[in-house]
Amino acid sequence: MKKKLVVLTGAGMSAESGLRTFRDSDGLWEEHDVMEVASIEGWHRNPKLVIEFYNQRRRQLATVSPNRGHVVLAELERDFDVQIVTQNVDDLHERAGSTNIVHLHGELTKIRSVDGATVIDIGYGDLTPEQTDDRGVPLRPHIVWFGEAVPLIEMADRLVREADIFAVIGTSLVVYPAAGLVNSMRPGTPAFLIDPGEVGMRLPSNFTVIREGAGSGVEKMRDRLSAYVVR
Ligand code: APR
User: Which residues contact 217 (CB under 8 A, 6 or more apart)?
Assistant: First the structure.
């Protein structure tokens, strides 16, 4: 049986595709204060601005492509049971061909009713403030904002506990509960960190650190993973 490779990704995974990371931009997300456009308070304060912000993010997403890192992770499915747990709301893992993806912080290409009952694919299209679902309930971006629960964290935690190999790519590990997943892996599990910068957490000693960008870093990890391929 193939070994289970669980990969936690963050904004750095998509940096080489041209999507900016959060913490390299002084807490700004595309010129906006993160709390203005990515918190439940920000939504209640100015839903029109938040809707327009995510409309722009969707239009931008339509113009970018998966990078080498996304592609190699998808290719690893040939030799491993790969499970991606991503904090990213983009769809670049999907477009690269990965098939098992948990989006901890939601998905740009979906919208949902404010009561959570309806989830709708919107692709790269725009949401308007007046739009409702067929029950008349207003719609909002399908994003987990600061101040909201992370419904998929328990599933992600279970996946990391089951991992034979664990990898962390392009996340500063400062936002919880996602960062806490590092503590869920079984002691002694082979683990890799791919990030050109410093991360906000002292990592357990079983981590092999690859201080590179996602593209070259994932290729290096693939070379080292050949030792774990079951034939
Ligand atoms: N390849 C890999 N990693 C990179 C690259 C690259 N080319 N460039 C930068 N990085 C690394 C940075 O060194 C940093 O450690 O990516 C990380 C990005 O960290 P953040 O910007 O904090 O992004 P992330 O950890 O995904 O943020 C978590 O915070 O704003 C919220 O909900 C949002 O999901 C997001 C969460």
Answer: 69, 169, 194, 195, 196, 210
28: Cβ below 6 Å to ligand 1?
no
Task: Count the domains in the chain.
Answer: 2
Query: Active site includes 105?
Result: yes
213 lines ligand 1 (CB under 6 A): yes
For residues 6 and 132, give the distance between their C-alpha atoms in angstroms, rounded to a whole number.
Answer: 37
User: Is the predicted pLDDT of residue 221 greater than 80, yes or no?
Assistant: yes
In this prediction, residues 149-156 reach a mean pLDDT of 98
- Closest residue to atom 6 of ligand 1, CA basis: 213
Q: Indicate if 92 and 161 belong to the same structural domain.
A: yes
* Beta-bridge partners for 101: 84
131 lies in the same domain as 200: no
Residue 29 sits in the same domain as residue 90: no
Q: Categorize the per-residue pLDDT at 230 as very low, low, confident or very high, splitting at 50, 70 and 90.
A: very high
Does the CB atom of residue 8 touch ligand 1 within 6 A?
no
